[in-house]
Amino acid sequence: MAATNGPTGVFAITKARLLIFASLAITWWIAHLLPSYKPMIKAQFKSRLDEARQKIPKIKVDWHPTDDPRARYNASKLALIIEPRPIPHLVPQLLHMTSVVPPDWRFLFIGSNKSVVSVARSYGIKHQQVIGKLDLMVLPEPWSIDSKENVYRLLTDVRFYDEFLPGVEWILKFESDSILCSNSPTSLNEWLHWSWAGAPRTPDDRFSGNGGLSLRRVSSIKRVLQFQERYNDTEAEDEWYGKRLWVMQGEKVAHGKNGALAVEDVYMEKPMGYHVRDGGKGINDAVWKKPKQRKKIFDYCPELSLIMDMKLERERCDGDNKEGGIGPTDEEKEKLEEEAKKAAEEAAKAKEEEEARKKKEEEEKKQKQAEEDRKKEAEEAAKKKAAEEKATEHGSDAGPAASSDELDEILGGEDVRKTDDGLNKEGASSSDSDSESNDDADAKAKAMGAAAQAKAEAKKTSTHRL
């Protein structure tokens, strides 16, 4: 056996036993000191834990979603129609509007018992109700919508907006005679910066907010209702709001064609929609009278046929000018007037030209007559001169020449005879040749010379006798 250097057995001192003893001693010491340091340790631990919690990102999980389908839409945007009459086209009009208005808008139909029941029968309307897009409502008493005045009172009462339209900021107000066009290049959401936008009544209307088809901001409406109250049986609610919003600072209101949302009395190219007053019974001629413009409107917005009382082209009367009358159209009348005016101008011009031509002919005739007179005087002067020369020649041969007075007397007698002969021969041809005229002149000159010479001889003989 090997020899050992220390005691053996249970009480033998080993390294392991020393370590165990030391750890027990330290544990007892810490346990003795722990009560005095316990608050400090807790505070330190809590501070460290809080710091760690602050560094952890916050996450909120909603494990209880709502079952209301209306929550999927924007509660601040609402398309509103108020109609107590059970009109047949309400269902197709509503379904069309739900497809044209942006998808985040909700619809509210407020009607009477009859109109609500007539609309609610449609399967398409029921589907819109199920998906939360459309609500049908009959207002409780004392609210009433059986007349336009009651509707005006409803829309100018702040309690209506607080009780039935909570949380709504924008209202698209439309009626049974208004519609949005699916071909419109703009979206309704592009108009949300306006306080009020509608249809102008005149091209320079300072408030283009006709309420038949208009976009309204509820906060602007409530601003007005805070200090103003409409008197019953006065102007329509849209006109009442317009006079006040137009002068309020910070409100952007449509005026003229600037901000005009729809067409009613003033024609515009490619509007958002149309308001056809009373279903077409009160339409403006400036928009609807011309056939070409009317066709252009229907090509752009064929949905108008849903709300307008229309006839087929083959149902027109004979002679219908397509402008609401029988006979020529205004355009044709204008064309006829222009043609008549043009014909009158041409006739006046022709008359002036004829008068100028006649005047010119008269002047030419006078000039020709004057020329003929000058020629005649020249011929007579030449004849007289020739007669004098011949008389002088004969006088030198046969005796003393006749005096100038005697020659004038002879020539005067010849002229008288010539004048008488001309009057007796009136109507004779004026186209004798110049040679024949000269021969006659020479013969007459010779005769005159002979007569003058004979007269001179006779005078001489009488002188000698004396």
From TrEMBL:
<keyword id="KW-0812">Transmembrane</keyword>
<feature type="compositionally biased region" description="Low complexity">
    <location>
        <begin position="446"/>
        <end position="455"/>
    </location>
</feature>
<feature type="transmembrane region" description="Helical">
    <location>
        <begin position="18"/>
        <end position="37"/>
    </location>
</feature>
<feature type="domain" description="DUF5672">
    <location>
        <begin position="135"/>
        <end position="275"/>
    </location>
</feature>
<dbReference type="InterPro" id="IPR043729">
    <property type="entry name" value="DUF5672"/>
</dbReference>
<protein>
    <recommendedName>
        <fullName>DUF5672 domain-containing protein</fullName>
    </recommendedName>
</protein>
<dbReference type="Pfam" id="PF18922">
    <property type="entry name" value="DUF5672"/>
</dbReference>
<keyword id="KW-0472">Membrane</keyword>
<keyword id="KW-1133">Transmembrane helix</keyword>
<feature type="region of interest" description="Disordered">
    <location>
        <begin position="317"/>
        <end position="466"/>
    </location>
</feature>
<feature type="compositionally biased region" description="Basic and acidic residues">
    <location>
        <begin position="414"/>
        <end position="424"/>
    </location>
</feature>
<feature type="compositionally biased region" description="Basic and acidic residues">
    <location>
        <begin position="330"/>
        <end position="396"/>
    </location>
</feature>
